[in-house]
């Protein structure tokens, strides 16, 4: 079974600084999707960024970017110019995205705090 | 454009009571999922459906049943609630995999079993 590991339960960053959240996963598939979701205190699950495994280029969305290392099965999220609104829980997630195997598998999450 | 709507948003049950959580999506998504979120555990899949009339077990299915009689609705039932089912429940939906593939989540249901 696929597994997603987020080994750091908590991290803290100074406002305007850069922080990297780590994620590793285990799979024998060659084609899959990886996601980072943000969950603020409102509980809503918000998609931060998505990476397709067949794409070698790392995905970027404004201040958010990933370092996708397919051979190492690593998928870290970098948040640049951190803002107070970035404080939330962040989940890394994986899916094979093939028919019956379209379900998302989540890591345990990391709580990010931003110091003013 | 409602997306994924979960009802109710909060509920307190007594041990042994039953209830049904409703998930409705208006995006014509084929796939629907029920997750539970517990502190330190992330989101774990309870049951899912790949189309109208189909259901399948996820990682933690015991104590739950589901039905998908209509494409837009996915119901999660607790026949005899237990304190271990105290959790936040999320419904999600998605198209079949492809370009811009992604999932849409509901806002969650906080369930407390006393």
Written overview of the protein:
- The complex is a heterodimer of chains A (116) and B (114).
- Helix content of chain A is 0%, strand content 50%.
- In chain A, strands 2, 5, 6, 10, 11 and 12 form a six-stranded mixed sheet that branches. Chain A has a four-stranded antiparallel sheet with strand order 3-9-8-7, with no helix packed on it.
- In chain A, a hairpin with a 6-residue loop joins strand 5 and strand 6.
- In chain B, 0% of the residues lie in helices and 52% in strands.
- In chain B, the strands form two sheets. In chain B, strands 2, 4, 5, 6, 9, 10 and 11 form a seven-stranded mixed sheet that branches. A four-stranded antiparallel sheet of chain B has the order 1-3-8-7, with no helix packed on it.
- The termini of chain B are far apart.
- Classes of the chains: A mainly beta (116), B mainly beta (114).
- The interface between A and B is medium-sized, with 25 and 25 residues.
Low-confidence stretches of chain B: none
Helical element count of chain A? 0
Rg of chain B over CA atoms, rounded to whole Å, is: 13 Å
Main beta-sheet annotation of chain A = 6 strands, mixed
What is the terminal separation of chain A in angstroms?
Answer: 41 Å
Helical amount among residues of chain B, as a percent range?
A: under 10%
Helix/strand/pairing class of chain B, anyone?
A: mainly beta
Q: How is this structure best summarized?
A:
The complex is a heterodimer of chains A (116) and B (114). Chain A has 116 residues and is mostly beta strands.
């Amino acid at each position: 079974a696929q597994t997603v590991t987020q080994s750091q339960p908590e991290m803290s960053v100074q406002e305007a600084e850069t922080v990297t959240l780590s994620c590793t996963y285990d799979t024998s598939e060659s084609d899959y999707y990886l996601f980072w979701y943000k969950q603020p205190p409102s509980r809503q699950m918000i998609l931060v960024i998505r990476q397709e495994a067949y794409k070698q280029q790392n995905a970027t969305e404004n201040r958010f970017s990933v370092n996708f290392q397919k051979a190492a099965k690593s998928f870290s999220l970098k948040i640049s110019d951190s803002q107070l609104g970035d404080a939330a829980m962040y989940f890394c997630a994986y899916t094979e995205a093939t028919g019956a195997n379209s379900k998302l598998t989540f890591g345990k999450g990391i709580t990010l705090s931003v110091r003013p | 454009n409602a997306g994924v709507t979960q009802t109710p948003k909060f509920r307190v049950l007594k041990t042994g009571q039953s209830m049904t959580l409703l998930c409705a999506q208006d995006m014509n998504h084929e796939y629907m999922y029920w997750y539970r979120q517990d502190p330190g555990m992330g989101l774990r899949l309870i049951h899912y459906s790949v189309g109208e009339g189909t259901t399948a077990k996820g990682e933690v299915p015991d104590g739950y049943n589901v039905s998908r009689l209509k494409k837009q609705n996915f119901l999660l039932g607790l026949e005899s609630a237990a304190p271990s089912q105290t959790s936040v429940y999320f419904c999600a939906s998605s198209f079949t995999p492809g370009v811009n593939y992604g999932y849409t989540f509901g806002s969650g249901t906080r369930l407390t079993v006393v």
